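Hi support team,

I'm filing this because I wasn't sure whether my run with nicotinamide-adenine-dinucleotide finished correctly. The job status page said complete, but I'd like someone to confirm that the output block is well-formed before I use it downstream. Pasting the exact inputs I used:
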Amino acid sequence: MSETSEPKRIVVTGGAGFIGSNFVHWVVDNRPEVHVVVLDKLTYAGNLENLAGIPEDRMTFIHGDICDEGLLDEVVPGVDAIVHFAAESHNDNSIADPEPFVRTNVHGTFRLLEACRRHGVRFHHVSTDEVYGDLALDDPARFTEETPYCPSSPYSSTKAASDMLVRAWFRTYGVKATISNCSNNYGPRQHVEKFIPRQITNVLIGSRPKLYGDGLNVRDWIHTEDHSSAVWAILTKGRLGETYLIGADGEKNNIDVLHAILESMDKGADDFDWVRDRPGHDRRYAIDSSKLRSELGWSPKHTDFAEGLKATIDWYRDNPQWWQGAKEAVEAKYAKQGQ
Ligand code: NAD
Ligand code: TDX
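And here is everything the job wrote out:
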């Protein structure tokens, strides 16, 4: 069973956040026949500036909560699909205060699935590779769609729970759903709480970058634009009920990424601080995306990480007004946690 038709009107939840807004720009730039309805609560992570420049006739913005059943009954009828990015997304926040994660990531996804069931709407769920737990540094294995779920943090456990709801709503109620689990994204408009933007902006304000633990944890980096094209491929060509892993063969340890940032910004290799490790810190993520590549013919465009990182550094350097307002509060929160 597959859904090969191109949707004409889609709801993008979390479309004012990092990956959601990059997806909205991608759709507006690449699919001229599609109208996007962004539904976003504008939490600390949502920013209307992320959608600046999008023509009014291509996008409608709705300020609201995915947990609001009444609102969903107004927004969902008549659309062809929901692409669900909205979430509480930061592991460190989930360790400090897990409740909003359970609310938005689990209950919010439940509300959206129920709305899709009532109104017969196609659903694509954007999830993370963190649902699979972690791999050892010396393990040659990578995650596949068959890897058992084993989440470590409050964040990843709520994402795992939401994936399970999607599978059950497909099997039991026939909701037309797909799931994607993607690795770590980088690119413009990522919140300064996350690793790469935090280190870039620390250098820009004259502070020292902060590395957790021994710095050897590995993340599998993908440019957010490649995540967007993969989500579109799954939405339009993916088999219903299936999960697709999204990754671009970008495994790197944190200290190597930090050294690349320091070098690009004319700093010395030791110009950073070691800080307290994250409790339960996952060691390594690695994605085998062969199913997505062979079945749907997808491949990433941004295969040169050093080049993508330089462009990301330039974006933060050129757009200080975008991040300066959030920076102080984020660093005050980290300082309290010894990070
Ligand atoms: P983000 O934190 O930058 O953005 C989240 C957006 O969701 C914000 O605009 C926020 O206002 C909105 N939102 C939060 N709660 C809401 C609610 N109750 N109702 C409506 N809107 C709400 O997150 P991101 O990094 O862009 O991640 C987007 C999605 O991609 C998430 O589902 C995340 O789990 C997934 N993901 C992220 C990564 C990554 O590297 N960042 C990797 C794989 C998957
Ligand atoms: O200051 C820091 N220093 C540091 O060493 C921060 C903020 C992070 N780190 C480390 C922790 C991780 O090993 O860098 C790595 C990346 O950290 P994050 O940017 O917080 O990402 P991660 O926890 O890997 O999760 C991200 O990828 C998967 C996203 O935030 C999730 O939403 C996504 O699901």
